[in-house]
């Protein structure tokens, strides 16, 4: 069939390399997946219960396009308590179907054709395609393991042109687990100010940090007006399937995003919104999950080193990003062979940008038992290939 039926910018974008591996593994008996970036925990019971109660009470309708006011108020309180930034529940917070929708809305609301959006790599797979779908031009900055995968202010400055509109900041980072200190962020904020840029700050892993507290970018001096803060419930509350997130930012931008949202989504699901209000009341469960991720993180990092894969020590999210350079295989070859021979799913680093080549992403959102078993299999794989 003539591919002219599909818009060029869509045709040219490859499907997500993560799903490819996930689909193969699902058909494979006995496979262990360190592949997919989602918590293995079930959503805490009190949250599920709140959802069930809401259904019993008959909450099955649309909500305001903005999302339930009560949820926006609870979010406003929670953001303020955690980071000291105050967002008005009316006009500065929009409830979305996950960070995914919030990202898409942000880009579509601010980008004119050919505007440039700077993003650091390795990073989450959606940033580049969503920028292109919004008719913008992604401009990538490589980050390096030797520099802890940090986006440096000087590197950002070097990429700025008269067309630069925004920067996507994504820390704690998927796939590297890297974080930025307050000082690193302040240096970036200076560049943002100087060049009159907007910042799309994806902080979906903000609650999952193991060394030091996360700094919300919009809490930095002068950054609230310039930042569209994206966050959601998927990772910290183990609520990936509920599809709930939010954007918070300057009223003018959030209102523009809302314009798109009301036509394409109408509103986020009410059931998920009711559950999210309970999630914001149950921080204990988040603490328990973070402690468990931390134990797994240590197990994974030490285990990888023991089998000869040097590994950057992640400080947030739930990913490790070991180097496989000394194996002589590309990251895709490594991941494919490992899956076929030992039934362990890892994601080739190249999926997260060209500078991710030479690395693989191993998520530790699986049980300690599975991590140990996976490490044993990877070790056997390395021995078999005399690596
Ligand atoms: C950095 C990052 N942002 C956003 C998302 C998507 O989040 P949501 O489930 O809220 O759409 C993911 C999912 O893996 C992610 O890793």
In short:
The protein has 387 residues and is α/β, with parallel strands linked by helices. The protein has helices at 8-11, 17-26, 45-56, 69-83, 98-110, 127-133, 153-159, 182-194, 251-264, 270-279, 283-306, 331-342, 368-384; strands spanning 32-33, 93-96, 116-121, 137-142, 164-169, 198-202, 227-232, 245-248, 319-320, 344-345, 347-348, 360-363. The relative contact order is 0.17.
Report Rg: 21 Å
Bound molecules: pyridoxal-5'-phosphate
- Can you tell me the overall shape? globular
How many DSSP helices? 13
The order of strands across the largest sheet is: 2-8-7-6-5-3-4
Order of helices and strands: HHEHHEHEHEHEHEEEHHHEHEEEH
Oligomer: single chain
Largest sheet: 7 strands, mixed
SS-derived structural category: alpha/beta
Low-confidence stretches: none
Between the first and last Cα atoms, what is the distance in angstroms?
A: 46 Å
Q: How many strands appear in the DSSP assignment?
A: 12
- Percent of residues in helices comes to 40-55%
Quote the average pLDDT.
95
Strand content: 5-15%
Write the SSE topology:
Layout: H1 8-11, H2 17-26, E1 32-33, H3 45-56, H4 69-83, E2 93-96, H5 98-110, E3 116-121, H6 127-133, E4 137-142, H7 153-159, E5 164-169, H8 182-194, E6 198-202, E7 227-232, E8 245-248, H9 251-264, H10 270-279, H11 283-306, E9 319-320, H12 331-342, E10 344-345, E11 347-348, E12 360-363, H13 368-384
Bound molecules: pyridoxal-5'-phosphate.
């Amino acid at each position: 069939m003539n591919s002219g039926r599909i818009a060029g910018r869509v045709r040219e974008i490859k499907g997500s390399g993560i799903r490819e591996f996930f689909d193969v593994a699902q058909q494979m008996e006995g496979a262990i997946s360190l592949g997919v970036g989602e918590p293995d925990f079930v959503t805490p019971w009190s949250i599920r219960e709140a959802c069930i109660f809401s259904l019993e009470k008959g909450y099955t309708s649309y909500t305001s396009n903005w999302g339930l006011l009560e949820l926006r108020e609870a979010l406003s309180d929670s953001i303020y308590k955690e980071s000291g930034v105050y967002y008005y529940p009316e006009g500065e917070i929009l409830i979305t179907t996950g960070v995914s929708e919030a990202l898409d809305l942000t880009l579509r609301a601010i980008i004119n054709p050919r505007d440039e959006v700077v993003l650091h790599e390795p990073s989450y797979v959606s940033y580049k395609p969503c920028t292109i779908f919004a008719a913008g031009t992604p401009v990538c900055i490589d980050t390096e393991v030797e520099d802890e995968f940090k986006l440096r202010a000087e590197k950002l400055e070097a990429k700025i042109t008269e067309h630069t509109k925004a920067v996507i900041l994504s820390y704690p980072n998927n796939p590297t687990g890297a974080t930025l200190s307050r000082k690193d962020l302040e240096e970036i904020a200076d560049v943002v100010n100087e060049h009159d840029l907007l910042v799309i700050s994806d902080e979906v892993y903000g609650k999952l940090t193991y060394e030091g507290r996360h700094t919300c970018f919009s809490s930095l001096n002068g950054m609230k007006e310039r930042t569209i803060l994206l966050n959601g419930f998927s990772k910290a509350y183990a609520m990936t399937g509920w599809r709930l997130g939010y954007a918070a930012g300057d009223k003018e931008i959030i209102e523009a995003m809302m314009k798109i949202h009301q036509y394409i989504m109408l509103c986020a699901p009410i059931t998920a919104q009711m559950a999210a209000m309970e999630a914001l009341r149950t921080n204990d469960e988040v603490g328990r999950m973070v402690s468990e991720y931390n134990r797994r993180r240590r197990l994974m990092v030490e285990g990888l080193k023991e089998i000869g894969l040097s590994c950057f020590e992640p400080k947030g999210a739930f990913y490790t990003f070991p180097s496989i350079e000394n194996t002589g295989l590309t990251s895709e070859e490594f991941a494919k062979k490992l899956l076929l021979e030992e039934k362990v799913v890892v994601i080739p680093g190249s999926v997260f940008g060209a500078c991710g080549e030479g690395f693989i992403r191993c998520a530790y959102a699986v049980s300690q038992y599975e991590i140990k078993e996976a490490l044993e299999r990877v070790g056997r794989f390395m021995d078999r290939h005399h690596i």
